[in-house]
Amino acid sequence: MELNIRDIPISIIAAVGTSLLTQYPKHCDKNELKEYNSFFKNLDNSISIDSSYQKQWKKKISKNIAWEKCAELNSILCFIEHYKVKEYCIKLISSDTPPAKFSSEIIVEFLQSKGIKTIQQISEGLIYDGTDRFSRRGFPALITHIKLSIDLSQSEGFLPIINATPGFKAETSIMTLMGAITNTPVFYMHEKMDRPFLLPAMPVSLSQEIWNRWKSLVQAVKRKDLTESGTMSAEEFSGYIKQHQLLDGEFLFEEFDNGITLSTLGYIFQEAYGDSTPELKLKKSKTTLENRIVITKLQHHFPKGTMGVAKNIANLYFVESVASKEFRDSSATRVLSRYNKESPGEIFVQWADDTKSVILPVKTTASNELEHTIARQNIEELLEIDSIDLEKTFQRPEKLFKSKQFQLINRLADFSEQIVSNASEIESLNKQISKLTDLNTILEKEISSEKHKSDQLQTDLDSFAKKSFIEKIRYLLK
Asked: pTM for the full model?
């Protein structure tokens, strides 16, 4: 398999590993080998190193650097020479580790000294420390950098080519997959090869039909990255699945920290198809801000903070009005998500304090189900709540949520939703029991009072009967 790119400007996108540093001992003086090994060990273990001492090693390694001294440079040179490329630039993506960043700086300086336009990027969070940062922050950042590099290359008039030779295995696997999904050529160069090997173009894609069904949920889950929890609740996710009857896109998501987030494939497809599916903006409300709150009830009857919440909601650009409806005996703050095709722009917010809640009907400019969903998600993010506030009612079943079986999500969502419902009913029953207890106390007092009256009456009757008997005896004695 070959590329006909001799007269085409090329942009080579590559990860940066530690090849430059691991190869250096082969070329350094034996007298400095021990000192270098100590330096590299500290660098690899993220141990603080004096900046001047680090500059000394940077200078020594830079003097020894050449095209054949590391995987990054050797693979680039072989590709350029094999395909006789006349014009090219380089975009390097480094992991967020001290050795990779150190190597990247030296390689960038070398390439720029040769007059080659080179951009260095750091994939934030891509740290191999055994924590969740690797999958939760590192992979998404890497995927974003790759997609940005591809888009930037094309906008500059360059054909993007991915170099899968350097870097850590996890990074090169993602780069290869991104190449397949975005239809970007990918090449590999082993140290024993005398020419680059162009990886076969794999037919990896997601049908437009499936993507159109799932894209709004994918975007909604990704937006949750910016919230405090960083995930979408299982309840909200399950509700969306049931509402839209989605069945074939589970691979786009995964469970994490009691919630749902995008899987690596989810992030890849979101980035790959993101440009063709721009985020939908609702029509801007024509109602002035001062006329959007139409609450007429006495404010002191509302749960604490109601008017502040109403004002915050009213400030959303797509909101027409915020009103008030009935009160409820509930301590759960939530956005009610039932969609009414007759009133697609209407959303009901239940706002609560520790004593009661009020329903706030919100009218928006949403004109269909998708716009309704986006408006609801914006309101939820504004209030920083999930569809149901679980923490007020029960302890989350963390062990179950951490299960790797995706099928548990719906059952867990139903389970926790049922607990919330039961807790609300128990709360209502406790209030009724309290009222009945008070009524029972009153009745006991009334019964006690009536018994006292009855006893007094019996005493009076006994006294009357006794007097009557005495009078009758006196009469007979006469």
From this structure: 0.55
